[in-house]
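Hi support team,

I've been running sequence recovery on a batch of backbones for a student project. Most finish fine, but this one hangs at about 90% for roughly twenty minutes before it completes. I'm not sure whether the input is malformed or the queue is just slow. I've pasted the structure tokens below so you can try to reproduce it. Let me know if you need the job ID as well.

Thanks,
M.K.
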């Protein structure tokens, strides 16, 4: 083997196998000071040591105070730059050119997530992963890690704002010490205005009994769900979701449930079943690393196969269910907010399961506290992404994502729908307006402005409400029309807005 070519390949490997995460707050007030955080991770999803490359800041927009260059701490693979100022006018964005002296033919420029700069921000935007499995799940035991690592990874490496270990009940119940410890570390890692924890668990129910659902608590001293019965055991208990709701109601705690994987083959939830409670289940996990349950045929089919029933998000909307949407990872390697599935079976070729990216939940509220995030999710003020931190908003009149609007004479004649977006590291996108679970219109965006500015798309739906309204649906018999938007960028990343409902 030629040593020269081997050395060239070795020089190239670190460049290909490293990811530089430049992160700034997603919503900033004009003249607000803020920090840029930087973390460099390798192909294993862990911080890179001895990262010597210089980062040169060039062509950043809407920001004052950036130094000419920086380097990460070689011991931690991270850096922080304080005292930056948002000047806008609309978007703030950091760009860093990575010097690669061993591979000079590579021109690497890494952008941060974009931020919207507003004179008086009506909300802040926070990012989290609400579906992480740890060693306490008793699945993928050789790969999952301790629950405390979930918090540390989310806070220090993925730079998330909030996280929830949501372990399987069968694993939690197998050791009486596990739930008390989950309660304790949820309490320990909940630091208002810095990082938020949520106490949670996953409750699996067989097909026809509710499917897979996660439970999230406002408090960190709540009990988990368990029935000391034979039908409670195993991966697909024949215990109905209603029994979980009834037991949770008796706890005196504040909680909600979120269905996920409703479109999977074998075990799923269909939307012709006689239960749905928007107060108990305000959100729908539309995407995780295992795929999307938005529609039957999509670019992200569910690992293990999709079913042919009326079990998708669009079917839920047509049945009258009122869900906001989130994404999360459903990560079984305890690496929340990371990009890939890591730690494949030791010494073997990775199996082709799951999708490369792990979803995120984007939640809009006034402050980074557990009560504020919890309340925002219950009112559906959130959206879902496949990982990238693109900025999205949708309005119909005065109503925004997740809201219900009473039809007046003007709305009965026509609806003006507005979608605003700034993509994270993409130069093209298709934006699809969905009405009553079906595509209504598509708009394409191209060019640098897609990630550098606030892009606004407007549609006018002239079809009379009386003609297009859904009526006598199982979960909402009064007539209504429901809209949401799906964004698909040129790199394959997706975002989904929470819907807006217009009631006749």
């Amino acid at each position: 083997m030629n040593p020269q070519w081997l050395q060239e390949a070795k020089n190239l490997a670190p460049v290909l196998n490293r990811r530089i995460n430049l992160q700034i707050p997603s919503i900033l007030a004009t003249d607000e000071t803020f920090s840029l955080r930087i973390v460099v991770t390798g192909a294993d999803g862990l911080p890179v040591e001895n990262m010597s490359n210089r980062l040169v800041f060039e062509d950043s927009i809407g920001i004052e105070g950036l130094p000419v260059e920086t380097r990460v701490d070689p011991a931690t693979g991270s850096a922080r730059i304080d005292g930056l100022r948002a000047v806008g006018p609309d978007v703030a964005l950091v760009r860093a050119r990575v010097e690669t002296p061993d591979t000079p033919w590579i021109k690497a420029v890494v952008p941060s997530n974009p931020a919207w700069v507003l004179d008086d921000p009506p909300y802040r935007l926070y990012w989290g992963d609400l579906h992480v499995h740890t060693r306490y799940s008793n699945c993928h035991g050789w790969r999952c890690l301790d629950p405390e690592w979930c918090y540390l990874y989310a806070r220090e490496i993925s730079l998330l704002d909030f996280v929830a270990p949501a372990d399987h009940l069968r694993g939690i119940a197998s050791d009486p010490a596990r739930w008390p410890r989950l309660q304790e570390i949820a309490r320990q890692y909940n630091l208002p205005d810095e990082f938020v924890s949520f106490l949670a668990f996953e409750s699996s129910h067989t097909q026809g009994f509710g499917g897979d659902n996660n439970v999230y608590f406002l408090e960190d001293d709540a009990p988990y769900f368990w029935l000391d019965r034979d039908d409670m055991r195993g991966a697909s208990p024949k215990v109905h979701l209603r029994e979980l709701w009834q037991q949770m109601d008796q706890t005196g705690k504040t909680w909600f449930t979120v269905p996920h994987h409703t479109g999977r083959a074998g075990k799923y939830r269909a939307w012709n079943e006689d239960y749905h409670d928007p107060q108990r289940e305000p959100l729908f996990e539309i995407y995780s690393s295992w795929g999307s349950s938005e529609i039957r045929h999509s670019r992200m089919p569910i690992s293990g196969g999709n079913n042919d029933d009326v079990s998708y998000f669009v079917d839920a909307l047509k049945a009258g269910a009122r869900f906001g949407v989130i994404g999360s990872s459903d990560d079984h390697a305890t690496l929340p907010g990371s990009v890939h599935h890591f730690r494949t079976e030791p010494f073997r070729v990775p199996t082709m399961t799951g999708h490369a990216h792990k979803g995120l939940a984007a939640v809009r509220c006034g402050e980074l506290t557990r009560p504020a995030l919890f309340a925002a999710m219950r009112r559906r003020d959130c959206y879902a992404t496949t990982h990238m931190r693109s900025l999205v908003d949708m309005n119909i009149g005065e109503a925004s994502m997740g809201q219900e609007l009473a039809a007046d004479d003007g709305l009965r004649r026509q609806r003006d729908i507005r979608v605003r977006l700034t993509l994270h590291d993409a130069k093209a996108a298709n934006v699809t307006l969905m009405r009553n679970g079906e595509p209504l219109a598509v708009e394409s965006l191209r060019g640098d402005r897609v990630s550098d500015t606030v892009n606004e798309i407007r549609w006018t739906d002239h079809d009379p409400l009386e003609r297009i309204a859904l009526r006598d649906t199982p979960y909402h018999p009064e007539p209504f029309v429901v809209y949401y938007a799906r964004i698909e960028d040129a790199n394959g990343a997706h975002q989904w807005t929470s819907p807006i409902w217009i009631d006749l």
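--
Follow-up from support: It reproduced on our side and the slowdown came from queue contention, not your input. Residues 3-16 form the longest helix (14 residues). No action needed from you.
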